# Entry
Amino acid sequence: MFRRKKEEMLYFWVSLGLVLLANLISFQGSRLFTRNLFHHDLTLPADTAIPFLPWTIVIYFGCFAVWFLFYRFIAGLPRERADRFFCSNVLGKAVCLLFFLFLPTTMARPDVSGTSFWEFAMRFLYSIDTPDNLFPSIHCLNSWLCWAGVRGNRDVPLRIRAAALFMALLVCVSTLTVRQHVIADVIAGIVLAEIAYLLTGIPAVRSVYGRLADRIVRLLAPLFGRGTGDP
# Structure
């Protein structure tokens, strides 16, 4: 059963905020402590055989919009499933933080000197995102969790479930073809997503997130008119 729209929307924005906060602490906060540490390069010989395809930056950047749509959709599913999805996101980011702190990673990037639109876009990407905090890949983690959040649920149309899997696979490939990650990062991101989603299948684990989200929703509800418990 789907919850009422008002409560659902507030729950969505609270959950999105918690995920973004976890991402900020993990991805940016860790850099405050690892900037001067030795960074490991996990590049394998197989990584060098993967073609560099600047046009796939469309997938790499486009996934942010797709994540938003799936986050919004999953927030409208029954609360147990929504809590599991968002809890696995926060848990996954917490584990990423530990890896970023204790196993700093880096990689070599290609020299992009062309004048095409795609090469300009690649230079822009490289200018705003330094090659660190790579293992596990948060891009792959997020995308794989979007699929985990809808798979096996017959209340979700097959086309949406298929789109989630297709998107997850495309994003994982794009992280390699734009030289933002190496194979080890992708595998780690997928494995972490599966472990986080497995753990949040335990009611006692996801209930921690559910109680936190409920508390914030109750605090914010008066700012948006009637409380979420009102008819």
